[in-house]
Amino acid sequence: MQAYADLHIHSRYSIASSQMMTPDALIRACQMKGIDVLGSGDALHPGWRASWEDFSGIGSRVLVVPTAEVEDLARVHHLIIMEDFADFSELNSVLAPFSRDINSGGRPHVRLDGATIAGHVHRFGGLIGPAHAFTPWTSLFASFNRTRDCYGPETIDFLELGLSADSSYGAGICDLKDVPFLTNSDAHSPDPAKCGREFTVFDLPARTPSGLISAVRENRIVMNIGFFPEVGKYNRTACTKCFTQYSLREAENLRWRCPADRGRIKKGVSDRAKELSDCPPSPRPPYLNMIPLGEIIRSALHTSSTHTKKCVSLYNDLLSAFGNEINVLTTADILELADINKEVSGAVDALRQKRVVLHPGGAGQYGTFTLLPPE
To answer: Smallest Cα–Cα separation from 3: which of 63, 83, 66?
Structure first.
């Protein structure tokens, strides 16, 4: 069976996360979005584990799979997937002597290298892979050139692309030839513009956590769905102060300092991926570029925020008519959409037909997009 899965989110216990991150709010967000499988996020935190264990989820039809993210000694972030919350309780006991915040922070810092952490995860039957692997901060390829440099003899079970990359960014890296690519939201808010903004379409052998784990292990990925990479906030090489963008050669000649304000120039995901590519691209499942419906409505109505009364009202009308956001963006009939709002109908049609002009982001600033009318 096919299932839409977002396996990387955070709880209210993580830094910069909304206090609205509760199991109830997250399940509602999944239902609005059309997400079938949700990673719990932050399952090493005792309070967050208890929140999910106490959550009944009656009638939700959303499968919750225990997941967590940790930061290692080299400041690389790892996504961990387990079959049961009890497995994370045991992993917590093993990692606790090496972490000061494992019981207080949602994404703990662990004073171990990636290989050691991966070894513990594998001994408990879990999966591990680099989170947002290409981003210039706290990622695998920010610190290392090859997976073995971080994970040693341990294998990675998947690689998370991150918002600023799509499958093509990793397809030409020999080291990743047989590694499944995941697309996840890394959401810190239950807002549907954040939760489920990227997700992976799996062919699940069973609608259970063990079925999801088997699907990852067997690379049963049907499709990846996510941002246009250019819209991600780390796609291009740019100054971290003024966000002026530079080519890789310009940045090197400037010794990675912006001449305008002496800000640090940070290498973008696009340049880093090209730098790492060392073989012909390997075949990958299709990658469908998507923009959250709230952002499309905001753009179509020319409002300043997705949270204006006008935008929220129209969003709810569309979901009432078509069930969830993914349906609106991918399968809803354009003429039926036009009966509700012609501007949004035209914008959704432009997205489907790839009539999109992208204005890339970089160094922490999101990119923007313009949806074009038909010629």
So the answer is: 63
- pTM exceeds cut of 0.85: yes
C-alpha angle 105-209-191 in degrees, rounded to nearest 5:
50
Tell whether 201 and 318 lie within a shared domain.
no
Least Cα distance to 125 among 66, 69, 83, 72 occurs for 83
pLDDT of residue 53: 87
| 253 φ/ψ angles, rounded to the nearest 5 degrees | -65, -30
| Structural domains of the chain, count | 2
Give kind and range of the element (H or E) at residue 251: helix 248-253
Q: Which helix (H) or strand (E) holds 223?
A: strand 221-226
Q: What is the DSSP string of 121-167?
A: HHHTT-EEEESSTTSSSSSHHHH-SSHHHHHTTSPPS-EE--TT--H
Residues 28 and 162 in one domain: yes
Tokens of 183: 């697309």
pLDDT band at 60 (very low <50, low <70, confident <90, very high): confident
Q: What is the pLDDT of residues 123-169, one digit of tens each?
A: 999 999 999 999 999 999 999 999 999 999 999 999 999 999 999 99
Within 10 Å of residue 74's Cβ, how many Cβ atoms? 15
Tokens 């600023």 found at: 164
pLDDT tens digit sequence for 294-337: 999 999 999 989 999 999 999 999 999 999 999 999 999 999 99
Range of the structural domain that residue 115 is part of: 2-228
- Percent of the chain having pLDDT more than 70? 99
Q: Which of 375, 369, 367, 370 is nearest to 165 (CA)?
A: 367
Domain for residue 13, yes or no?
Answer: yes
**Domain termination site, one of 174, 197, 228:** 228
Q: Which of 130, 16, 17 is nearest to 72 (CA)?
A: 130
Phi, psi of 210 (to 5 degrees): -65, -30
**Helix (H), strand (E) at residue 5:** strand 2-6
| pLDDT at residue 41, rounded to an integer | 97
Distance CA 317, CA 310 (A): 11
Burial track 357-366 (b if 16+ CB lie within 10 A, e otherwise): eeebbbbebb
Residue 247 in any domain: the answer is no
